[in-house]
Amino acid sequence: MADQTTQQTTLDIADTLVERALKAGADAAEAIVVEGTSLGVSWRLGNLEDVERSEGKDIGLRVFCGKRQAVVSSTDLSDQVIAPLVERAVAMAKVAPEDPWCGLADPARMAHDWPSLDISDDVSHPSAEELGERAAAAEEAALAIEGVTNSGGAGASWGKSGIALVTSGGFRGGYSGTSHSVSVSVLAGEGTAMERDYEFSSARHLSDLDAPAQVGTEAGRRAVRRLNPRKVKSQSVPVVYAPRVSNSLLGHFAGAINGAAIARGTSFLKSRMGEAVFAPGIAVHDDPHRPRGLRSKPFDGEGVANRAMALIEDGVLQSWLLDSSTARQLGLENTGHAARGTSGPPSPSASNLYMAPGTLPPEELIADIKQGLYLTELIGMGVNGVTGDYSRGASGFWIENGEIAYAVSEITVAGNLKDMFRRITPANDLEFRYGSNAPTLRVEGMTIAGS
User: Fold this and answer.
1) Which of 67, 108, 130, 246 counts the highest number of beta carbons within 10 A?
2) In 204-290, at which residue ranges do the beta strands (DSSP E only) sit?
3) Are 427 and 246 in contact (CB under 8 A)?
4) Could you count the other beta carbons within 10 Å of the beta carbon of residue 198?
5) In a 3-state reduction of DSSP, which class is residue 16?
6) What is the mean pLDDT of residues 378-382?
7) Can you give the pTM of this predicted structure?
8) What is the four-CA torsion angle of 279, 283, 288, 291, rounded to 10 degrees?
9) Which helix (H) or strand (E) covers residue 156, if one does?
10) By C-alpha distance, which of 28, 27, 29, 35 is closest to 11?
11) N- to C-terminal Cα distance for the chain?
12) CB atoms inside a 10 Å sphere around CB 201
């Protein structure tokens, strides 16, 4: 009942903002109210280091005067602030440059009802003491691994957020969600031969969160495995992306099919709609309605009805990610991918993006690799979205004769995403642990720059 009361309050605030904007001379308006509460603790070497709690409520108002728009935001909800804020927003819109593509979403595309996504854990509201116990358990388990010599710290957190959206076009809705997380980073080895690694888990519901001891044990094992890394010679070999980094390739793909990049002509996939951009058999989906998904939402940032959809089918590109503005620019239908905060207009973004698993277990995926790289960490952002050129610092493990042989570090992996996507083979180990998820991925013919 408390959540319903809070949501009603935020919806009322959004209603008031829209009404005031119309009275001030706006032709149309939409208001978003975002509120959140978070609690987190930091723990290191058996001691509580920090406790942080935050509570806040932000408002964002977008107003339209003809084909001109302006956005204002505030964290102060007092009438002394809101009244002049609305007036300034309308005044700004009247002198803003014209944008032929701006405007509220098409009323025919608005959501009128939406599913229950089970993204709010209304049972578990941990105290700082409980979070401290989780962080302590994670660190203790990590330090218990033989070879682990120091801790970079552990943490545990909980948060709850709510969103209310109202438009002068008739949309009115809101939802709330929770998050739980635990993480730990540790070091193994001594002196200049130390290596670091980490592990974390995050979930909407506490019952889905990995046990803190499990998180710590995995972090410790990973750090120890990285000891005594070797250098490798520059060469062209297959690269196998572990699941903790394979989702980064999906991130690059999502950026390349973002409607804003397509409309500007700044994507290496801008002319590839309906063509094979991945290997045959590859499927990539986006599902905003995944139950308990970390990026699930019942409607998009403009109030448009969203749905699960295939972005890649059998390797073929099926759709861009579009909000109302980019859809208008491209002469296409809005796909319900608008995302937004309080301080700017909506822009396209994926939700629960994932690549469908293949048929081979990871062990078989690498079994025929005579020389190759098993990639576990990426550094830097050397990716050109216009050309697809890809170059990132990396570390992981060298593969010899189908087996993980030894740790490697201080290398660079390079290629071009257009070629990399066509050479991907997925394993069968897909798990939904992050916002974007992919199984272990093998990419043929990448360049390794080493010693």
Assistant:
1) 246
2) 235-241, 284-286
3) no
4) 19
5) helix
6) 88
7) 0.94
8) -130
9) strand 148-167
10) 35
11) 62
12) 18
Give the Cα separation of 158 and 267 in Å (integer): 37
Nearest to 398 by CA among 231, 242, 274: 231
Confidence of residue 2 (pLDDT cuts 50, 70, 90): very low
What is the spatial distance between Cα 336 and Cα 64, in angstroms, rounded to a whole number? Answer: 21
Q: Give the contacts of 63 (CB within 8 A, at least 6 positions apart).
A: 21, 26, 28, 29, 69, 70, 86, 89, 90, 93
The mean of the pLDDT values for the chain is 96
Instruction: Report the distance separating Cα 167 and Cα 164, nearest Å.
Output: 10
Relative to beta strand 436-437, strand 353-355 is: parallel
pLDDT in the model for residue 6: 55
Burial class (CB in 10 A: 0-12, 13-18, 19+), 34: buried
**Residue 340: closest CA among 281, 298, 300, 389:** 300
Beta bridge partners of 377: 395
> What tokens were used for 392?
């990132």
Query: What gap in Å lies between CA 119 and CA 166, rounded to an integer?
Result: 21
Rounded Cα distance, 104 and 125, in Å: 37
* Spatial contact of 115 and 298, defined as CB atoms under 8 Å apart: yes
Percent of the chain surpassing pLDDT 70:
98
With tokens 């297959």, the residue in question is 238
What pLDDT, in 10s, does the model give residues 204-226?
999 999 999 999 999 999 999 99
Secondary structure element (H or E) that encloses residue 48, with its range:
strand 47-65
Cβ-contact 219, 142 below 8 angstroms: yes
What is the distance, to the nearest Å, from the Cα of residue 140 to the centroid of all Cα atoms in its chain?
Answer: 29
3-state secondary structure of 91: helix
Tokens 């603790």 sit on residue: 41
The CA–CA distances, whole Å, from 32 to 11, 70, 124, 313, 323 equal 9, 14, 27, 35, 16
User: What is the Cα–Cα distance from 11 to 18, expressed in whole angstroms?
Assistant: 11
Q: Are 40 and 131 in contact (CB under 8 A)?
A: yes
DSSP code for 104: P
Predicted confidence (pLDDT) at residue 419 exceeds the cutoff of 70: yes
